[in-house]
Each structure stands twice: as structure tokens, then as C-alpha cells.
Amino acid sequence: MSMIANLLSFRTSTYLTRNIIRSTSLLTQNRFLSSTLPPSNKADNKNSTLPNELPLSEKKKARFNISWKTVSVTLFGAASLMGFIYYLDQRKVKSRKKLQRAAVGKMAIGGPFSLITHEKKPITDKDFHGQWLLIYFGFTHCPDICPEELEKLAEVTEILRKQKSKHKHSFQPIFVSVDPERDTPELVSQYIKDYSPHFIGLTGTRDQVAEMCKHYRVYFSQGPKVGDDYIVDHAIIMYLINPNGDFVDYYGRNKNAKEVSSAIEQHMNAFKETNK
Amino acid sequence: MSVVDKDYREKCWLHRDDYWKCLDTNKEEKEKCLKFRQLFETSCPPTWVTHFDQKREYDIFKRQLALGQVETDKLKTIKQQPTP
């Protein structure tokens, strides 16, 4: 759109300058003719040689001077007009982008958290700033869905790590336990090693986990106990968080690893464009 | 409780699949698959066994619903209504 607008403005400005030059030169010619050569002297003109010499040089000079002035003035005018149009256009694009970002930022998903890593280090959301995060919520005693989703997460990680050099911000897959009673850091550490060496596993106290799940709108509920064993029912969603710590996108079970990784790559490219 | 590792998980899934295959070939007659059932139960945690049993029931129901072999109460009321 902006290209077309610029082109149009350029065309109209050249058209304008051409017309202005033509009309001004015509005007000067007429003025000159009318002042130096009265129409009644037409007959005398043919015979007299002296008056013709002076007007010709003066005519040239006059035309030359005025046309250069007009050309420079019109060129300057056209340039400033184009510059102004370009400025307006850029402002519009900028405000549109800002609006788009604001719309995404308004989504009330994500927020601060404070948990313990599988290496027993306390960690908060701020420690992950500057990285792309793909967060999956699950538990180590999960019968079938979590393993499937974690395999997917590992596959996405492999795909994105191959294109690592393209992006400034690294990609970090994260597993968050929704079963803090049983999932100790040691257990989480053993569990995630089955899938990928790049995973970071997070767990914590019940309150800490519940707090994070509340921010991320993740439902989880402990099922009926059989002896000491139970299954935790929970939302199956992967969340994508950008390097600023904002929620960007989510992926459910219906998306495979290729679809998820290409969607993430698009977000990475868009982020690079807007944060140059 | 120790962690459920990959080997354990895959063994459990394998015996679950064997048991389900037996049920498929024997038209859901559980008495004919007792051997597979026992293997399935010993290689998976009890909570997983109930989870997988429910899952199979649900999957069969879903398949039948898609094929039009079951009629839920809601479907019946829809069918009874005269089409406009």
C-alpha cells in the first residue's frame, strides 16, 4: 500500500512540476513579448535589425533564470511533500504494529512464578527473560498423554536447535509438574532425561505450583487414590513465551511437532522484525 | 516411589496393546484374554490400568457413535422431532 501511495505521489508531483514549469515559462514569454514588442510594431519589426539582438539575449537570460528558480522551488516542494507523505505513512505503520502488539499483550495468560529446577536451584520467571520458552504442564506418573506431548516437545526442540544460529534468543523447553506432592526435583530430573538433555524441569511446593497454574490458566485436579497412587487430570497445552516474558501462542494435542516448530519460527521472525 | 522410566512405560504400553488386540479379535470377550490381562496388570501401575480401561471404553463408544451404532438420549430426541 505504502509503495503505491509513494509512487502515486511521485507521479502527481512530477506532473505538477512539469505544468508549473510550462505555465511559468509561457507567462514569462508573454510578459516579455508584451512589454518589449507592442503588437502594433509588427510591421516595423521585420525591417529593423537592432532591436532584435538585445531582446533575444535578454529573453534567454530571463527564461534561464526563472526556470531554474522554479525548478528548484518545485523540486524542493515535491521532495518535502513526498517526505511528509512518507513520514505519515511510516507513522501509520508504526501505530498499527503497536496496536497489534497491544492486542496480544492484553491476553491475561502468564505471569510471575517462583519454582525449583530439577537441579534444585530456585528460579523465577525473570531468570528466563531473553529466551523463548515452550512450557508444558504434566506429571511424571502420567500414563499416556504427557509422554506423547513430551516426545513432541523434544522433537520441536531438535528442529529449532538446528536453526539456532538464525536467532539471537535461544529456545528453552520447560516441563512444569502439576503433581508437586510426588514430583521431587530428583524425580523430575530422572524423568526429563528420558526425553531430551535440553529440558528444564520445574516443581515446587503445592502453593507455588498452584500460583503458576493460576497465572497460566492451567486446570489440574488429583484423581481418586488407589493405594498411594493416583492420576492427575490436567489441561494439555503448550505455551509459547517470548524473550520479554510475554505469552505469545499456545499449542494443543491437535498440532504435531512440525506444525508447532514452524509456528514458533514465524513468531521468532515477527519478533525480530518488531524489535530491531 | 521411583520414577516411571521409558523402559517401564514402553513395556506397559506394549502389554496394553497386546491385551487390546486380543479383545479386538475376540469381540470384547474378556474371558478369552485373561492371560494378556494378567500381563497388562502386572506391568502397569493400577491407576494406569483403570485409566486405560476407561480410555478403551470411551474410544469404542466414540467409534460406535461415529458409525451411528449407538443412540444416546439426546440423539433420540433429535430424531423424534419432525424435521422442519
From TrEMBL, chain A:
<keyword id="KW-1015">Disulfide bond</keyword>
<feature type="domain" description="Thioredoxin">
    <location>
        <begin position="107"/>
        <end position="269"/>
    </location>
</feature>
<feature type="disulfide bond" description="Redox-active">
    <location>
        <begin position="142"/>
        <end position="146"/>
    </location>
</feature>
<keyword id="KW-0472">Membrane</keyword>
<protein>
    <recommendedName>
        <fullName>Thioredoxin domain-containing protein</fullName>
    </recommendedName>
</protein>
<feature type="binding site">
    <location>
        <position position="142"/>
    </location>
    <ligand>
        <name>Cu cation</name>
    </ligand>
</feature>
<keyword id="KW-1133">Transmembrane helix</keyword>
<feature type="binding site">
    <location>
        <position position="234"/>
    </location>
    <ligand>
        <name>Cu cation</name>
    </ligand>
</feature>
<keyword id="KW-0999">Mitochondrion inner membrane</keyword>
<keyword id="KW-0479">Metal-binding</keyword>
<dbReference type="Pfam" id="PF02630">
    <property type="entry name" value="SCO1-SenC"/>
</dbReference>
<keyword id="KW-0143">Chaperone</keyword>
<dbReference type="GO" id="GO:0033617">
    <property type="term" value="P:mitochondrial respiratory chain complex IV assembly"/>
</dbReference>
<comment type="similarity">
    <text>Belongs to the SCO1/2 family.</text>
</comment>
<feature type="binding site">
    <location>
        <position position="146"/>
    </location>
    <ligand>
        <name>Cu cation</name>
    </ligand>
</feature>
<comment type="function">
    <text>Copper metallochaperone essential for the synthesis and maturation of cytochrome c oxidase subunit II (MT-CO2/COX2) by facilitating the incorporation of copper into the Cu(A) site of MT-CO2/COX2.</text>
</comment>
<dbReference type="GO" id="GO:0005507">
    <property type="term" value="F:copper ion binding"/>
</dbReference>
<dbReference type="InterPro" id="IPR017276">
    <property type="entry name" value="Synth_of_cyt-c-oxidase_Sco1/2"/>
</dbReference>
<dbReference type="InterPro" id="IPR036249">
    <property type="entry name" value="Thioredoxin-like_sf"/>
</dbReference>
<keyword id="KW-0186">Copper</keyword>
<comment type="subunit">
    <text>Homodimer.</text>
</comment>
<keyword id="KW-0496">Mitochondrion</keyword>
TrEMBL record, chain B:
<dbReference type="InterPro" id="IPR042289">
    <property type="entry name" value="COA6"/>
</dbReference>
<dbReference type="InterPro" id="IPR048280">
    <property type="entry name" value="COX6B-like"/>
</dbReference>
<keyword id="KW-1015">Disulfide bond</keyword>
<keyword id="KW-0496">Mitochondrion</keyword>
<dbReference type="Pfam" id="PF02297">
    <property type="entry name" value="COX6B"/>
</dbReference>
<dbReference type="GO" id="GO:0008535">
    <property type="term" value="P:respiratory chain complex IV assembly"/>
</dbReference>
<dbReference type="InterPro" id="IPR036549">
    <property type="entry name" value="CX6/COA6-like_sf"/>
</dbReference>
<dbReference type="GO" id="GO:0042775">
    <property type="term" value="P:mitochondrial ATP synthesis coupled electron transport"/>
</dbReference>
<dbReference type="GO" id="GO:0005739">
    <property type="term" value="C:mitochondrion"/>
</dbReference>
<protein>
    <recommendedName>
        <fullName>Cytochrome c oxidase assembly factor 6 homolog</fullName>
    </recommendedName>
</protein>
